[in-house]
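Progress note, sequence design subtask.
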C-alpha cells in the first residue's frame, strides 16, 4: 500500500497540515508502532565542505502512523526514553539502517550513516553487542557507522559509559558528540572519550550570521574539534551566507536545509548536491 503511504507522507509533510492532529501517543501506541514496523528512516545528507562531495547521512527516525501520518521524533523519543522502549526503538533503527547500508553498498553507493543513540542505550553492553553481531552478519565496515550521542546524555551517563565508548572505538565505529555547546560536559571528559567528530548545536549555527556571540562559539567549537583531532560538523545550515561563514572558519562537514531536508531512502538514491 505504498501509494497511500506516499500520499499520507506528502500530506503531513505539507507545513499547512502540520499540527492539525494533536496526536499524543501512549506507551502502548509506541510499543505497537515498533512491533508493527511503523518506524521508518529518513536520511539527511552531509557534505564535505572542502570537496563538496557527499560525506554521509544522518539517520532520523519517523513514525508512519496508519491514521495520523508522519510523526516526528519530538513526539515520541522522550516517551521512549521514559518508558524504556528506547532499547527496542534503537535496536529497530540500527537494524533498518544497517540493512539500508548493505543495499547502498551493493549499488556501489556506500554511505556513512550517523545514528542517534540515547543515554539509556549505553548503560549496558546490549547495544555494543547487537552492533557487533549486525556488523558481522551483514559484513559492514564499522567505520561506516557513526554513533551520535548528545552532550547532555553524556552528563547523565556514568563512568561505565566510558568503557562502552572505548569498546565502540576499538571495534572501529565512529563516535560523534551531538548538540555540542548546550550541555555542560567538562573538557576533561570530552578528552577522555575517544570522539571522532564534534557536532556544533544548530542554535549557534542558525544565529551565527546575525549574532557575534554565536559566531564566537562556532569558531571556538571548530578550533576545539581540530585541536582534539576531531572533525567539526555544523548542522542547521539554512542559507548560503551561513555556509560561506562556516567554510571560511574551516568547518569540515555541513548539514542542513540549505543542502537538503531529511528524505526517504528512495529519494536519497536520486539526490545529488548542487542540482
Ligand atoms: P538531532 O539529532 O539534533 O537532529 C537534527 C534535527 O534537526 C532533525 O530533526 C533534523 O530534521 C533537523 N534539521 C536538519 N537540518 C535543519 C535545518 O537546516 N534547520 C532546522 N531548523 N532543522 C534542521 P528531527 O528529524 O525532527 O529529529 C529531532 C531529534 O530527534 C534529533 O535531533 C534527535 O535528537 C532525535 N532523534 C531522531 N532520530 C532518532 C533516533 O533514531 N534515535 C534517537 N535516540 N533519537 C532520534
Ligand atoms: Ca543527531
Ligand atoms: Ca544535533
Ligand atoms: Ca537537537
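Output:
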Amino acid at each position: 500500500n505504498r501509494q497511500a503511504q506516499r500520499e499520507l507522507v506528502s500530506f503531513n509533510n505539507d507545513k499547512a497540515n502540520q499540527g492539525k492532529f494533536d496526536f499524543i501517543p501512549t506507551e502502548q501506541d509506541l510499543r505497537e508502532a515498533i512491533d508493527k514496523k511503523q518506524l521508518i528512516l529518513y536520511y539527511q545528507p552531509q557534505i564535505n565542505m572542502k570537496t563538496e562531495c557527499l560525506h554521509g547521512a544522518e539517520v532520523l527516525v519517523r513514525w508512519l502512523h496508519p491514521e495520523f501520518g508522519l510523526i516526528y521524533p519530538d513526539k515520541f523519543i522522550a516517551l521512549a526514553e521514559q518508558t524504556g522502549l528506547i532499547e527496542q526503538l534503537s535496536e529497530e533503527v540500527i537494524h533498518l539502517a544497517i540493512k539500508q547500508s548493505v543495499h547502498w553498498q551493493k549499488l556501489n553507493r556506500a554511505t556513512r550513516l550517523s545514528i542517534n543513540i540515547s543515554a539509556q542505550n549505553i548503560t549496558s553492553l546490549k547495544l555494543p553487542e547487537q552492533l557487533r553481531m549486525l556488523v558481522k552478519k551483514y559484513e559492514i565496515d564499522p567505520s561506516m557507522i557513526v554513533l551520535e550521542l548528545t552532550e547532555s546524555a553524556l552528563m547523565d551517563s556514568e563512568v561505565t559509559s566510558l568503557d562502552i565508548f572505548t569498546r565502540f572505538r576499538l571495534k572501529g565505529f565512529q563516535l560523534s558528540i551531538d548538540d555540542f555547546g548546550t550541555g555542560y560536559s567538562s573538557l576533561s571528559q570530552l578528552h577522555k572519550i575517544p570522539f571522532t567528530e564534534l557536532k556544533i548545536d544548530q542554535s549557534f549555527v542558525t544565529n551565527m550570521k546575525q549574532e557575534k556571540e554565536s559566531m564566537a562559539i562556532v569558531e571556538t567549537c571548530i578550533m576545539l574539534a581540530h585541536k582534539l583531532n576531531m572533525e567539526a560538523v555544523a548542522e542547521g545550515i539554512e542559507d548560503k551566507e551561513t555556509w560561506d561563514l562556516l567554510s571560511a572558519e574551516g568547518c569540515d562537514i555541513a548539514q542542513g536545509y540549505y543542502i537538503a531536508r531529511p528524505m526517504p531512502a528512495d529519494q536519497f538514491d536520486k539526490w545529488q548536491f548542487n542540482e
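Strands lie at 39-48, 54-65, 69-71, 113-116, 145-150, 174-180, 197-200, 231-234, 253-254, 263-264. Work on this subtask will continue into the next period as scheduled.
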